[in-house]
């Protein structure tokens, strides 16, 4: 398998992390059946030795990683306190982010016919009063993981505890992070292209009582003996899609309607993750399909954000009543019955007209 051809992220990124071309699809030259068989039964922690995890991460040349300090010990012998999404967000609202804000480009630059077409037929512009909130989201995406910031450590610990059920702190550097679906022992090295926003999205997913059951089910799906995938790396890629959709103004209509940006981006992230998990489970995807799945997911998410958000809303309402389960009654191991027959998910056939189009990363 050609790693370069199946990498979800581009091989070069600008310093502000914007405007680069995605080469997400896998090369059709490999033998799919043999590829799938080759990865059955391989633990997530071992996939990196086969070059598979590299297909889901960015090889950014100029990513400034102030956060690559190695943490070998947990910060305290006593279990730390969980941190909520709102508390973590408030931290970023109060610290000086001006060096990171200088890097952002809030919207995609268009010229010529592309600019004219966007002006005539594109989505509405974001309301002026919402642009500061949008810029905060994009600025957080420029921030790395800081080993000296206790809030950053608490975010990581909270994600780990909520996904694993552990009541104790873990070392902030170690193989246990690979079990959660990071590429290596240091989560900081996997945030390129999405920054700390990727961790905030995971925090939102596990700390919101409505989305926690969904997060736990997707995490269980990611550990399936055949359909396994790196949960956290997949989440980082979905955050990447959310950032791009925001910059391309795909979410502006919904943000204007709700008069909010951060809740819309959070819900869009969760809705996109839900759709990916449904496609992954019902269409029996494996790690070798990840490039195609992510590419098609980005096209769909930017084309029909409102549809994804509505599906999430209906799904969460049914989960709260005990009427829906992403994995079905068999929890991954039995017959693959559709988890919610009344909900409509856009399938691959709806994307055929876009299959040859390029996708742009931040």
TrEMBL record:
Give the matching PANTHER family: ELMO DOMAIN-CONTAINING PROTEIN 3, ENGULFMENT AND CELL MOTILITY
Q: Any stretches that span the bilayer, and where are they?
A: none
InterPro entries according to UniProt: ELMO_dom, ELMO_domain-containing
Q: Where is the composition biased (Basic and acidic residues)?
A: 9-19
Superkingdom of this protein's organism: Eukaryota
Q: What is this protein called?
A: ELMO domain containing 3
What are the boundaries of the region Disordered?
1-30
According to the entry, every stretch annotated as the ELMO domain falls at: 151-305
Residue stretches in coiled coil: none
């Amino acid at each position: 398998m050609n790693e370069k051809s199946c990498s979800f992220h581009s091989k070069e990124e600008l310093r502000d992390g914007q405007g680069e071309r995605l080469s997400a699809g896998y090369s059709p030259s490999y033998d799919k059946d043999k590829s799938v068989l080759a990865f059955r039964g391989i633990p997530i922690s071992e996939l990196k030795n086969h070059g598979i995890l590299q297909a889901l991460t960015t090889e950014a040349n100029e990513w400034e990683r102030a956060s690559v300090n190695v943490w070998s010990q947990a910060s305290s012998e006593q279990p730390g306190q969980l941190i909520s999404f709102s508390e973590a967000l408030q931290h970023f609202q109060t610290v000086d982010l001006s060096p990171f804000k200088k890097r952002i480009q809030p919207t995609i630059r268009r010229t010529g016919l592309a600019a004219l077409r966007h002006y005539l037929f594109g989505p509405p512009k974001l309301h002026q009063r919402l642009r500061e909130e949008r810029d905060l989201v994009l600025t957080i995406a420029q921030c790395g993981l800081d080993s000296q910031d206790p809030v950053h450590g608490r975010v990581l610990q909270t994600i780990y505890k909520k996904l694993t059920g552990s009541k104790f702190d873990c070392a902030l550097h170690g193989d246990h992070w690979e079990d959660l679906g990071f590429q290596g022992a240091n989560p900081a090295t996997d945030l390129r292209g999405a920054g700390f926003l990727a961790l905030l999205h995971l925090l939102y997913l596990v700390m919101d009582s409505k989305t926690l059951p969904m997060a736990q089910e997707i995490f269980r799906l990611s550990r399936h003996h055949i359909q396994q995938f790196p949960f956290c790396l997949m989440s980082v890629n979905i955050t990447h899609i959310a950032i791009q959709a925001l910059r391309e103004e795909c979410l502006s209509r919904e943000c204007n309607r709700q008069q909010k940006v951060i809740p819309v981006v959070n819900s869009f992230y969760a809705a996109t993750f839900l759709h990916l998990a449904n496609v992954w489970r019902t269409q029996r995807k494996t790690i070798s399909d990840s490039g195609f799945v992510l590419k098609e997911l980005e096209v769909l998410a930017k084309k029909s954000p409102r549809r994804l958000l509505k599906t999430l809303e209906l799904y969460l309402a049914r989960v709260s009543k005990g009427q829906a389960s992403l994995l079905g009654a068999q929890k991954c191991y039995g017959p693959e019955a559709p988890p919610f027959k009344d909900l409509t998910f856009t399938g691959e056939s709806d994307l055929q007209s876009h299959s040859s189009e390029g996708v742009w990363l931040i």
